[in-house]
């Protein structure tokens, strides 16, 4: 009996790892997921045990393959969280915990580099704005505070590279990961100019060789086979970081194509023929390792938590989302003139501008404003932020936007994003797009597909299309103009507003630490004599 050919895709996210076995036409044959811990030894730190991550991956590989049954695996590939510092020694052992992309210990160093010009150099060469979780600032931070750890390190391996190393024993990375370290994204090679300009020549020894994402990077070793149940010698493709891998899973591989993610945070990415975003735009530029193609990305902090919060504060949190959608649909587009600035994240905003003091607001309210209008304004505010990102990235008005993430599962969200941005939206219903993206790389690496476009077409795209309503174009154009104008007019007040928030919290904390003082009140009893009584303040109704 002929066994079903299949590929194994692994996605190692920040809080969970997933292994999925797919048939060559994209059918899920087996899947397994496991959580991984984020350790926070100090409030500004975020670390993971690298061996714990590998153990979780090995367990999910075994479980997914068991569920798939008697299949013929033709190859495997890995994607995962990017950035951070994952350092191993000469023997391939971790020199310490992995520092994650959301680690904040190097924030003061980022500010210093912004003042002395090194941040601008990083942006110029790599195409990406500097942030605390980037490898160059983390290496300096570690060298100053734990020099023995850096001295003992031999190679930096990003998360997916660490997993592939455990599978194959080969140290390597791909251009998408290196784009956030020392890569010249225009040339596709490590930049000696950047290393020299940062004074980091001593760190060049830590950089692994670059391999194209759609090539065989190594084969499963006997040790890895014992831990995972995979066959010895199984080809393992290089893979890529999760952001572009998700785009590939959506079928976004050619210049001019666009995709967006609406989850806990948001994201807009456009495939370009080389970097083109202006230098003052806080983009993330990721090389695809295919010719000179890059993905230029803007990643706003505002996403679906805005909707969760708005449902709660309008007193509708007991309703299912389907009922909330009916309330929102009952309100006309434009939300009765109400605007919502969707900057509700406690850490501010990072795209399309950077402001750690940014805050959310409903604007243009009156006593006639309804809960439905407040909610619709939140949906539209998120869409207006996505529209601004698309405009700044040069996404054409007629370009189709592939949309995924938890928010995309709502048809109402897709309709509003299409109407507000003026661009057709295609929603994907496939749950593990990063896995499908690296599965496509396996097909290319093993010769089962001639190129990435053919590979994604073979695995399927399963999209549902939403067209913008042309009758709403003028309304949303006017809305977008006012949205940016009132946002920018409020920006210079955000720092003082944030100070008010801190002062209020501090006052509240102090009040809980000590009882309120009693007030002495002189009362005049009917007899005409005076009597002194004491009582404590009571809250007003």
TrEMBL record:
Q: Which positions fall inside the Carbohydrate kinase FGGY N-terminal domain?
A: 7-249
Ranges of residues in domain Carbohydrate kinase FGGY C-terminal: 259-445
Q: Which GO terms describe its molecular function?
A: kinase activity
**What family does the database annotate?**
Belongs to the FGGY kinase family.
What Gene3D superfamilies does the record tag this protein with? Answer: 3.30.420.40
Q: Where is this region: Disordered?
A: 500-541
Pfam family, any one: FGGY_N
- Basic and acidic residues: compositionally biased ranges: 500-513
Record's InterPro entries?
ATPase_NBD (IPR043129), Carb_kinase_FGGY (IPR000577), FGGY_C (IPR018485), FGGY_Carb_Kinase (IPR050406), FGGY_N (IPR018484)
Q: Does the keyword Lipoprotein apply?
A: no
What is the organism field in this record?
Answer: Oerskovia rustica
Tell me what this protein is called: Carbohydrate kinase
UniProtKB keywords: Kinase, Transferase
């Amino acid at each position: 009996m002929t066994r079903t050919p299949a590929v194994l895709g692994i996605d190692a996210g920040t809080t969970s790892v997933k292994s999925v076995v797919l048939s060559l036409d994209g059918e899920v044959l087996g899947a397994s997921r496991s959580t991984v811990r984020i350790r926070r030894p100090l409030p500004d730190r975020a670390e993971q045990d690298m061996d714990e991550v590998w153990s979780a991956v090995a367990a999910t590989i075994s479980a997914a393959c068991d569920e798939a049954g008697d299949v013929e695996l033709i190859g495997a590939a890995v994607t995962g969280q990017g950035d951070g510092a994952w350092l191993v020694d000469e023997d391939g052992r971790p020199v310490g915990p992995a520092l994650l992309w959301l680690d904040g210990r190097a924030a003061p160093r980022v500010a210093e580099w912004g003042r002395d010009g090194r941040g601008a150099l990083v942006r110029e060469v790599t195409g990406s704005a500097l942030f605390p979780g980037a490898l160059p600032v983390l290496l300096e931070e570690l060298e100053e505070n734990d020099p023995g750890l850096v001295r003992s390190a031999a190679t930096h391996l990003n998360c997916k590279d660490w997993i592939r190393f455990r599978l194959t024993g080969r140290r390597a990375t791909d251009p998408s990961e290196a784009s956030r370290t020392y890569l010249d994204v225009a040339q596709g090679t490590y930049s000696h100019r950047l290393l020299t300009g940062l004074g980091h020549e001593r760190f060049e020894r830590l950089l692994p060789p670059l391999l194209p994402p759609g090539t065989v990077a190594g084969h499963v070793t006997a040790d890895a086979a014992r831990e995972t149940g995979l066959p010895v010698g199984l080809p393992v493709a290089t893979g890529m970081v999760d952001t572009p891998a998700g785009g590939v899973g959506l079928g976004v591989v050619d210049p001019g194509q666009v995709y967006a993610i609406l989850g806990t945070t948001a994201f807009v990415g456009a495939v370009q023929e080389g970097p083109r975003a202006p230098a003052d735009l806080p983009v993330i530029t990721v090389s695809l390792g295919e010719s000179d193609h890059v993905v230029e990305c803007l990643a706003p902090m505002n996403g679906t938590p805005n909707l969760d919060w708005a449902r709660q504060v309008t007193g509708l949190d007991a309703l299912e989302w389907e009922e909330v959608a009916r309330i929102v649909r009952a309100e006309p587009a434009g939300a009765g003139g109400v605007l919502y600035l969707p900057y509700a994240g406690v850490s501010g905003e990072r795209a399309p501008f950077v402001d750690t003091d940014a805050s959310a607001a409903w604007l243009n309210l009156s006593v006639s404003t309804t809960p439905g209008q407040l909610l619709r304004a939140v949906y539209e505010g998120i869409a207006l932020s996505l529209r601004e990102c698309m405009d700044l990235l040069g996404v054409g008005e007629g370009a189709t936007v592939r949309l995924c993430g938890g928010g995309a599962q709502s048809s109402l969200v897709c309709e509003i994003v299409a109407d507000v941005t003026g661009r057709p939206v295609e929603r994907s219903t496939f749950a593990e797009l990063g896995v499908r993206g690296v599965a496509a790389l396996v097909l290319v690496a093993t010769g089962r597909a001639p190129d990435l476009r053919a590979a994604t077409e073979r695995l399927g795209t399963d999209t549902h299309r939403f067209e913008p309503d042309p009758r709403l174009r003028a309304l949303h154009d006017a809305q977008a103009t006012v949205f940016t104008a009132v946002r920018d007019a409020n920006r210079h007040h955000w720092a003082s507003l944030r100070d008010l928030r801190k002062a209020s919290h501090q006052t509240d904390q102090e009040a809980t630490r000590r009882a309120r003082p009693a007030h002495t009140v002189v009362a005049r009893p009917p007899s005409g004599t005076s009597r002194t009584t004491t009582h404590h303040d009571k809250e007003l109704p």
